[in-house]
Amino acid sequence: MWRLSRQIAQPSIVAGAAGVGMVQFRAFRRPAGEMGLAREGSAREAGFGRVIAGLAGREMRLMLLREAGMLCAYALAFWLMWNWAAGWAYGAYYSVWFPAAGLRLAYLWRRPLGVVPFVCLAEIAGNWLAGNLQWMHEVQTGGIRIYGPCLMYGLVVNAARDFRRAPSEGTDLSPLRFAVATVLAPLLASLMAMINEFGHAPLTRVAGLIADFLLGDLLGVLVVAPPLLWLADRVTGARPWAIERPKMAQVAEFAALMVMGWGGVLGLYLAGLGLALLPVLVATCWLALRLGILAAWLSILIAAMVVLPLSAGHVTASLAFQLHVALTRIAVAGYMAGSFTEAERHARREIARRDRLLLRAERLKTLRAISLAIIHEISQPLSTLAIEARHLAELGEKEAASPETTRQVAGVISRKADDLAHLVERLRRFGELDPVDAGPVDVGRLIADVVAIARAEAQEHEVSIEVAGSTRAVVSGHAIELRQALLNLVRNAVAAAPPGGQVHVAQQFHARRLTIAITNPVARKRRRPAGMGIGLIIARTIAEAHGGEIERFDAGADAVTYGLTLPLGGAQS
Questions:
Q1: Which terminal Cβ of the chain has fewer Cβ within 10 Å, N or C?
Q2: Quick check: 194 and 210 in contact, CB under 8 A?
Q3: Domain count along the chain
Q4: Is residue 549 part of a domain?
Q5: Which residues are within 8 A (CB) of 376 and not within 5 positions of it... i.e. 6 or more apart?
């Protein structure tokens, strides 16, 4: 309540402060001759501020009245459920079926911790007005019996709710934490009740009373609280727990397991072994682990609908106690198992969501790499075109320029323009294989072409290129793109090798796949690369588009090997 009033009062304070600040600011800015008008305006603005404060105060009073009305409705519902549970008290104070505990936990789950004392007072007032607490001594004694467990419920619920909001995991485990609260709150409340009963009854009597208390609260919480919270979320428009809609196969499985479980109970009873609910316990746990929390709660509800009418005065107290112990086992085990299944589903959905985010980030990274690749591939032809165009312009300004020189420069511009157009077409098909253009590629010839192109660059770096062996292997793909991928790998090897080093190119066959291995020594003091460092990205993209891959292997302490692996498309010798 204090939190609520503080939250409501803050807007009125801010509005009042804003109104006073606006009045002072306007009075300061006006000339002295207009101060009379300013005072009248400030009076009007002060009145406006009082109106705003009055409206905020009215809203706060309405919210307080609404909170008081909810507490009154809670007290009435608590009294009705208390009287409903009287049929399972068997002459004792505590009942082995206490649905009011479920109402209490459901109400506290959506309220702050500061509401707990008012909830305790509402429960005491409801019992006193109903005649369950007659005199002041009974009010004090019964009040201790009520507000002690109620306080433990509030503490447990608040701890579970705060733990549910903790962002350390990022995974929604609300069903599992709610299930833990449904078990832990009655346990701690029963300890509080046991402390209260010491000195008022013999020890054996206290043990029986606490057992009744624990059974009644557990059953009431597990049967009543989940549907109340679900209905409250649906009515208020809050986001309910994501419970998957059952499919027809799941409905059939649920019905079959229920029939088998209760058929087993009937069979054991007809065999003279008594009312043993063990088959229903096994069926409930199976359904909870397979289908989730909804199937678990429905199974618990069916068991409660069978056991509660049977134990309400139709059997002995000892048999009723045994039946409620068995029903509590079904409720606790089934609800915990179903909550675990729901939490696991939520975790899987969260992992899938994160995987989608990672995939999106990887796509953005790939898009950035492709953009850099386009810049890298287009910048060189554009630079050449710009240089040759300036050269052609300079020749045009010279009267003595020979037609042959002009023709050569124009020819260079034309060739570079054609190369650029061809490059744009390749980039348009980047990463794709066109079945029309794909064909057999001779690997030996491919390696020879790449070595011939890269040999001049290798000589500049004082590096030699050695090709080991010769085969007639054939792969299927685009010769130009495969040549570009292999050329990028060879150029990287040449750039990484020290002066006087040797780059080895070899072929390896395994399981209908060919690996072109490029091995180079590693310089201790590596040269700074001249390019943008995306040649390997382009080579890997081309390899993957051809159904292959590029891997890095360590060839010793001072050497490294990159392997371009491609599927074979023909015979080799």
A1: C
A2: yes
A3: 4
A4: yes
A5: 531, 532, 534
